[in-house]
Amino acid sequence: MEKTNTKTLDKIQAGTAVRIAAIEAGRGLKNRLAAMGLLADVDIRVVRNDGAGQIIISVKSSKIILGRGMSHKVFVVEI
């Protein structure tokens, strides 16, 4: 994974479209996120990020709420 232009999901402002570059987490969390459709090279949009608390993202036609700890392990690039 190229670190120069990647950010963690918790640093992305609401309304921004991003592509998942990598998920750096344990097997359990990776499987849980994969079950929700969050895999590498998937395009998502940040719906709400107030800078504290949960983050709401849109994946395909679904909205998903992620905790700040989970979102800190998802690395994305802006598209």
Describe the structure.
With 79 residues, the protein is α+β, with helices and mostly antiparallel strands. 16% of the residues lie in helices and 39% in strands. The protein has a single domain, classed as Roll (SH3 type barrels). A hairpin with a 2-residue loop joins strand 4 (55-59) and strand 5. The longest helix is centred in the middle third of the chain and has 9 residues, at 27-35. 19% of the residues are buried. The model has no long low-confidence stretch (mean pLDDT 91).
Q: What is the CATH topology descriptor?
A: SH3 type barrels
Helix content: 10-25%
Oligomer: single chain
Strand elements, count: 6
Lateral strand order in the biggest sheet: 1-6-2-3-4-5
Q: What is the CATH C-level name?
A: Mainly Beta
- Write the element-wise H/E pattern from the N-terminal end onward: EEHEEEHE
Summarize it:
Helices cover 16% and strands 39% of the residues. It has helices at residues 27-35, 68-71; strands at residues 7-8, 17-23, 43-49, 55-59, 62-66, 74-78.
Please write out the topology.
Blueprint: E1 7-8, E2 17-23, H1 27-35, E3 43-49, E4 55-59, E5 62-66, H2 68-71, E6 74-78
Antiparallel strand pairs: 1-6, 2-3, 2-6, 3-4, 4-5
Question: Which descriptors would you attach to this protein?
Answer:
79 residues; alpha+beta; SH3 type barrels; 2 helices; 16% helix; globular
